[in-house]
Amino acid sequence: MDRRRIISMLEDVRAKLITPEEAARAFQDLQTEDLGFAAVDHHRALRLGFPEVIFGEGKTVEQIVAILKSLKTRQDTVLITRISEEKAVQILQDAPGLDYNPVARTLLYSAGEIPIQGRGTVLVVCAGSSDLPVAEEAKVTSYALGNKVETLCDVGVAGIHRLLANNDKLRSASVIIAVAGMEGALPSVIGGLVDRPVIAVPTSVGYGASFGGIAALLAMLNSCAPGVVVVNIDNGFGAAYAATIMNRQEC
User: 234 — alpha (psi -120 to 50), left (phi > 0) or beta?
Assistant: First the structure.
């Protein structure tokens, strides 16, 4: 139950398609549901514009399925992140009809076509093929949250002509998510080319002195390019969530 559905329901009350009592019963579902091991937040979509997302890492299959079924009773879209292939197979046995992306490690449930609510395009730019899992997580999340999404893959600074050949695509995007490991230079380069917000995502890809993504994180935090903001290491989900807020029509 999000703002769009509540407004639609209130319009139905005004048009006398449903009674005020029926609407009141629906609003009673906007609460926290106690599953014992989790308190499912059914009010989040109304507060924030997006329903609760399930972080799958560290949860059992049974816990994930229970939260999923609870959310599906009140939401048209449910996203599960950080899901291994082994867990995905088990979850799909109990809850068929979800779309599994093995690269992004996501499961996505949608009752129908997800409506586009963004003003423009969220462009996910990936430095190297090794960064694809994080970039794909950002792509799936952006789509699940109602954005038009496009991607540019393997356009890192080691072959900068590949990036420059896509100047038009970069400049036409509303928000850019730049995903890079190693030295993490890609967001700074993009930030110097466009007048769009650039969300930098450092990945844990790299050799020893990359320190599991810390080198890329520090490089991005110290970028001299204006308009570059940084999320945590490997946090494609967080980047997509922030990009969605920037791209929403009501902003």
Answer: left
- pLDDT digit string (tens) for 9-67? 788 888 888 888 777 766 665 677 677 887 777 777 777 778 888 999 999 999 999 99
Q: Please check whether residue 236 is in contact with residue 106, taking contact to mean a CB–CB distance below 8 angstroms.
A: no
pLDDT at 176 over 60: yes
pTM of the model: 0.85
The residues facing 150 across adjacent strands are 123
**DSSP conformational letter for 130:** G
Q: Pick from 48, 67, 49: which is nearest to 109 by CA? A: 67
* 168-205 as b/e: b if 16+ CB within 10 A: ebbeebbbbbbbbbbbbbbbbbbbeebebbbbbbbbbb
3-state secondary structure string across 181-222: CCCCCHHHHHHCCCCCCEEEEECCCCCHHHHHHHHHHHHHHC
Domains and CATH numbers, the chain: 1-30 (no CATH), 32-110 (no CATH), 121-247 (3.40.50.1970)
pLDDT attached to residue 251? 45
The yes-or-no verdict on residue 95 having pLDDT over 80 is yes
The mean of the pLDDT values for the chain is: 89
Q: Beta strand pairing status for 99-101 and 228-230?
A: unpaired
CA distance 245 to 223: 23
Give the three-state DSSP class for 142: helix
